[in-house]
Amino acid sequence: MDRPKEEHVKFVSLAGGLTGCITRVVVQPFDVLKIRLQLQVEPIYAKSVASKYRTIPQSVGLIFREEGISAFWKGHNPAQMLSMVYGVTQFTSYEWANEQLRQLSMFEGHDRARNFAGGAFSGTFSALFVMPFDVIKTRLISQDPKGASGYTSSWHAARHIYVTEGLRGLYRGFGPALLHMAPLTGGQYLFYNLFGNIFKEVEHLPPNECLSTTRLLLCGALAGICTKTIVYPFDLIKCRLQIQNFYQARKTFGEHFVCTHMLQCLVKVGQREGLFGLYKGLSSSLVKATVASSIYFTVYDQLLCILNKKI
């Protein structure tokens, strides 16, 4: 929801950072499953003989049998750093951008457009800081369980990528990440505020009144579902680009997908795997987005309500 103007920026940063940490612990298993499915070239089909992962239940069981329960939190350290940095930069930059946009006459009476623009800016700004953590997370999740050529830790991954691939390696997939993150973040704020305003109008609540936890959960869940479905193909393309030059550590996951840039990747997935290939792992991603958005916005709003009372 739109925050009061007198709110101090340090509370926004603190709430954003804590929210990111709490959310990541819960949704990391969904992220692991999503990335494994996104990177599989073979069809995700129950009767596919060539596919390692065929259905979500089968995939969960297979990961557990081959790698143990800890596998569902692979890449958690860089993912946690990603969430903390993203939480702080996203919410702080969103609040700043929203205040700046309020001063522009073109946004007067257009709160939804302002929410989307502010969210898109915050998503783009945050992507600059979190992209290296995203690349490291994806590679740790996607490497062979016992591959000698893989990374042993987040720090080892960061150092190896930088030495062998340069700074560009830590920003692989940045193009589709922006195309994914800007509308995703903007859409989340747009839909979140839209659904929140609907609840307030129905319940005749004042604009600055905090909604109940149940209402906040529902608003966040709906916002996550709506936006994730729209921009999902860019998320898949981003992951495919992030594992380029990493084939030596992915020998147990079937065919390795090779591409050099976003457009080629998009076309190749469409030709090789069809339209539905661009939506591999969507069901897991929607569960993750629903849970993440629900927790993210709910905890954020509740923390701000608590912190604001102490101002």
Give a nutshell description of this structure:
The chain has 9 helices and no strands. With 311 residues, the protein is an all-alpha fold. Helix 4 (111-142) packs across helix 5.
Shape: globular
E-strand count: 0
Q: How far apart are the termini?
A: 19 Å
Uncertain segments are: 1-7
Average pLDDT value?
84
Beta-strand content: under 5%
SSE sequence, one letter per element:
HHHHHHHHH
Helix content: over 70%
User: Biggest sheet: strands, sense, closure?
Assistant: none
**Taking Cα atoms only, what radius of gyration do you get, to the nearest Å?**
20 Å
Structural class: mainly alpha
Number of helices: 9
Key descriptive features of the protein:
globular; mainly alpha
Describe the structure.
The chain is mainly alpha-helical and 311 residues long. 70% of the residues lie in helices and 0% in strands. The chain has nine helices and no strands. Helix 3 (76-102) packs antiparallel against helix 4 (111-142), helix 6 packs antiparallel against helix 7 (213-242) and helix 7 (213-242) crosses helix 9. The two termini are 19 Å apart. Residues 1-7 have low confidence and may be disordered.
What topology emerges from the helices and strands here?
Elements: H1 9-39, H2 56-67, H3 76-102, H4 111-142, H5 154-170, H6 174-203, H7 213-242, H8 262-273, H9 282-308
Helix pairs in contact: 1-3, 1-9, 3-4, 4-5, 4-6, 6-7, 7-9
